[in-house]
Amino acid sequence: MEIDFYQFLNPYDVFFMSVCMLSIFFGIKNGILKSFLNLSKWVVIYFIIKNCFSFMRPLVDPYITNTTVSDIIIFLITIIISYLFLSFVNRLIIGVVQPKNSFLIDLGLGSVFGILRGYIIFVLIIFFVENNFSEQIIPEFMSNGSFQDIVTFGIEFMDHIPRNIENLDNLDI
Asked: pTM (2 decimals)?
């Protein structure tokens, strides 16, 4: 099998490989446990922010009448407090588990997790650009990309995810 490396030198593929390599670097540096705990931390922070406004608004509204400023303050307070608390919990878990005892397994799985995370980040970037900017930018750009098929698969998957998945009652197919 002969590979022509010049096919990977278009901007689309260079950007894709850069995102994946950076993510692999952080996956190897942190290992699978730390990477997974950091990912779960950001997912929990997202859900805390999403659900905190109904709880915090009655507390903040009597003091701040402008709703925009109120929303910004609620957001900042929530993200700072939850980030600090969850980072502390992550450090405790990492200190108890001590992932450096299984060094090679941790690094190997961290790099695999890094590849997956890099792919997801790149798909989210392309999905965001396609849905919020001119649709003429990406198709021209992607038509020359060697990784076009796998990224297009991820973008189509993102298109088919229900927008209000929490409102679904029954998932029978």
From this structure: 0.63
